[in-house]
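User: Second chain of the day. Same drill as before.
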Amino acid sequence: MRVPLLIAVAAIAACSSPEPRTEPPAGPNIVIILADDLGYADVSFNGGDIRTPNIDRIATEGAKLERFYVHPVCSPTRAGLMTGRYPIRYGAMKAVYPPWRDGGLDTSEVTIADMLADAGYEHRGIFGKWHLGHSDARYHPLRRGFTEFVGHYNGAINFFTHEREGELDWHRGYESNYDEGYSTDLIADAAVKFVDAHAGEDTPFLCYVPFNAVHSPFQAKEEHLPLYSDLPPVKGVWSGATRVNPAPSRAEELLANRRILGAMNHSLDEGVGRILDALDAAGIANHTLVLFSSDNGGVGGIGSNYPLRGAKASAFEGGTRVAAAARWPGVIPAGSTVSTPLANIDVMPTLLGVAGVDSHSGKALDGIDMMPVLTGKKKTLKRELYNYIGQAGPDVEQISYMTNDWKLLVIGPAVTDESADDSKRRRYLFHVGEDVSEKANVAAEHPERVEKMYEKLKAFRALQPADAVPPYNVGRHNPEWKAPKEWRMPGS
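Assistant: Same format as last time:
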């Protein structure tokens, strides 16, 4: 089964509901592991300086996904993964949901957990960072198709105290969770416990593990810090638009945080290894699809995205093209490499296929079924991908449109704002099929191509509703705002 790719300007069409199942599903167990702010080159299978033997196992025992695309920051990527749809359609692509923000993932959207529930996946767990709404219980993971939840609602919690804005943000279901320990370890603990509990059952499970590592605050376990005391600085153009040579004091700070990140990465890799070992010990590895990726590129100057240009919060490759791999022994050829562009929005249609669902009860999807290329039945896919971020405000939005070979990136006022000064918009055209580092801006050489691609960008940007999530800092300094006690959700 394949769900066709919809171009960004296509009309949304409802699909028929799946027929009730009368027999146990034949689909595999599904484990989705999402790292947080992991740099493209901060896994050793992409040639990085930080050894990641356990994460590497997913690539060596399955497929390395060379061109896997997500969105520039956390919440939009998670929303796209959950729904198979560009988050701009439901107002969740501009920025993340910070602590002072109401709202969350549109409750009319169908999630992968909803869909797999209909497909007979009785147990659907999420362990780690949600970041898709914390202001009301209707946004809670247990209201979005999941049956078990251990983790936190917000981003950037303290790894040891599990606090954000001075309040505990660590939960088991709807209740506060007072378990002590390093959050990366606790997330792995919960995922392993879930696998152990449900491995022997007749129905397959969904285990979604969105680690908060290696997102800031930069905090690692003391025993791992000496292992990365000699980690070198990052290479490449990580600021995006220009090369940055930071002041000596700033360079020292970046390097210190990079070395802490190395130790954080160590714990992340150990956690991934424990999950893989649990699958092996339960004898279900051959009947389990494992997908691994980061939610965006590494932080500029701290995470390594080399040889890509840019970093987290940018639409350059370094912000959106991430380390990724997929494993399903006997189905995905071991040691293979997939070089065609794939994306987070492809997860939903792929899971529809592997779960044996022929129709989808939600809205029309933007992603495609990845299995033909993951299995090697197809080598390439002709496709289009869009990206967008307006987190820093309306004057410096970044939006991109990419085919297999070409990418147009525009930075400046919203491309749909006809009243804006067009001279303030910077247009970059890259032949990404050959220029992986986005070194050569060839926009001046291809004006007709730029114009055609620019029209596509305008149509995509016009999809954003008026009530979209605001830029990040809106409401941040409101003196009347206060974090709720232990981040309890109203209505829970």
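The first helix runs from residue 53 to 60.

User: Great, on to the next one.
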